[in-house]
Write a structure and sequence with these properties.
The chain is mainly alpha-helical. Helices cover 69% and strands 1% of the residues. The chain has a single domain, classed as Farnesyl Diphosphate Synthase (Orthogonal Bundle). It is built from 15 helices and two strands. The protein has a two-stranded antiparallel ribbon with strand order 1-2. Helix 4 runs antiparallel to helix 9. The longest helix is centred in the last third of the chain and has 28 residues.
Length: 301
Amino acid sequence: MTFDLELFLKKMRTRKDYVDSCLHNSLYNMNGYPPIIHEAMNYALFNGGKRIRPIMVFEGAKIAGGEMQKVIPTACAVEMIHTYSLVHDDLPAMDDDDFRRGKPTCHRVYGEAVAILTGDALLTGAFELLAQNSDRKEIKADRVIRVIEEISHAAGSRGMIGGQVVDLESEGKQLDYRTLKTLHSLKTGELFKVSLRAGAILSGIDDKGLQALTNYAYHFGLAFQITDDILDITGNEIITGKPLGSDQKNNKTTYPTLFGLKKACQLASESINACVDSLDMFGQEADFLKEQAYYLQHRNN
């Protein structure tokens, strides 16, 4: 298929605006006393995120023949989980970043204690939203339970948090390719994978289709991380919204440091092609996911 960058960005903006609207509605129902924590949750959540994960929830539902409206709680939940992880990642005890997407990080605005509690509140609120799927008669209860289980696993010690721990323990160490892939598969890839799977599971996809989406998400997460590592070297701070060279500052092994920039770009291209090939069994309903993979070669933030 021919990739039209301008058209894709237009589609992405439309989807992002829809996600933002859903998130506003979800957080509105969580607002209350004390106001400072809800203000901080809003600050963290509406800090210029690309909304890739909730969009994946919607795309998974669409491919399975479902309706986007029915998976809104799940889409909002995965974005809240992602945002909580960023709030905690930025803390002095972890990556110690002062800016994210060009704005001061949550702890710089509200202090470390409130930032920690903001992450906790976003994570807890995500599972409150996931439980709301049980209120929808058209979604079978066993699918709701399965999605909650999978998201818990993806966000937990054997998924995203496990990857973050490996990342912390790896600072100052030279990692091999296998360990580096495992690290990012856990830290970044698991949430991509479960987002796409969750929308599809709630919408009743069959096992063959679910495996195809799982393969796509695996390769997408790998390509995303490689291009992220490349941007940390070649990007523009004004566009990325964060200081460049943070990986080098923290003595982290990245794909460019392990293989060199040229080879890292080649690995990203191979992963993108694998993403697209994973969707061969689907028709036009998978076009956006293919375009999303191709976009990784053009991303600047």
